[in-house]
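Tutorial, part two.
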Amino acid sequence: VKITQGTEALPSLAFIADSDTGIYQNASADNSIAFSTAGVRAGFFDDSQDFYVTNQVFVKDAAYDAIEWDGNFSVPTKNALVDFLSDVAGGDGSSWTSRTSTADNSWRSITYGNGLFVAVSFTGSGDRVTTSPDGINWTSRTPATENDWRGVTYGNGLFVAVADSGTGDRVMTSPDGINWTIRTSPADNDWLSVTYGSGLFVAISSTGSSDRVMTSPDGINWTIRTSAEDLSWRSVTYGNGLFVATASTVSSTSVMTSPDGINWTSRTSAATNGWFVVTYGSGLFVATSNTGTGNRVMTSPDGITWTSRTSAADNKWIGLTYGNGLFVAVATDGSSNRVMTSPDGLIWTIRTSAVDNGWVGVTYGNGMFVAVSNTGTGDRIMTSGKTEFNEVSTDNILQGNLEVRNDLLVIGDVKSSRVEAGIGVFYTSLSVDGDITQTSAFTSSLGSLAAGNTTGQGQKEAVAFEMLPKDSCGGAIDVHGPLLQ
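Running the prediction step on this input gives:
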């Protein structure tokens, strides 16, 4: 999905409306743009063929706050529509929503894999794991044992979690995030972070004597490795053929790297801060800190040479991830500013957190950023990205909402039902040649779309959209979208 100006990128099947009257684009085979206030020519699709939503383009020509959707969709478009809405409302990290956590545990780490978000905690009774397929609805899971689980990752079809408590059992694994099995840890160190890369799981520890790294090819059998230094290693990531770990110890060498997870080398950090977390994305390693003045971010293209960057605020940045072309960091302190984002890792912008909890972990998956907290009451999860969609079997209904935030569309409140011919009060007749005739007055400042596939074979089901403005928007709306091809 891209945001663009004008109509140069419009596909052949589109909804177009201006602030005063409904303007409808004819569906043409050659992608030419033709407008009519009388109606729109509709294509059709066969019940047996798939309808794919591709090349979506949203065009924003005027400032507005939000719009609400009320759409009718034929049955074959339902699944494609959900995918379409998910893409359009992909997380941008700028707007966050509180979600209900399954328990007020001290959630410490979160990951995404195999269609599931998995978070682990170092407190709780029989519920130190929580999972969600969408980042919104969460379910408590029983851990293999009630250790203090500090880190979790996904790789090679397996979730792996590590702990800083327990005796010989500080690793647990799960193929599905639900059923967990204890694995033998080679040392009872405080294992705080784990990652996967190049066919290897690597975990790092804040305690131990020259043994603060352990590796496993399968998440089950683990081997101790010699760390570059005995620092308080807090985070490890993998990118560009390199494992990189950072330490919270205030030291000039609070970074270590390894090409294989076995042999580690100390690296000089950009500043003697406590570097709590590191991630990799878009060709860049990025680390954030809980100490320092204006320099709580550092970056490196190779994991070896590091450069200080200006942090958006001097908060304790404990969680960090990369997804959807964006670095997102979360903090345990600050006043309504516990999130900062950056498209390049260099320039950072403060974002308002959903609530001022102690945000300690964040990940990206399924079109959303999801963060977890170790404080708060019933709200220790927040998300940024697509909203929830409830599917109701009767009449093929989809429900959610749509908002415009920072020039991006965040979609929900979509009502969907089968359409055989026409769209109720706006269009009531459908001719054999595919023209929809407007037989009642057009009463809204926005119009409707009827679209289908390009085969034009037979009179089947029309797809129709009807978009109504929110009262607060009035005539300020000038929107082109959604565009389907």
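Residues 1-90, 387-485 have pLDDT under 50 and may be disordered. In part three we will examine how such features are distributed along the chain.
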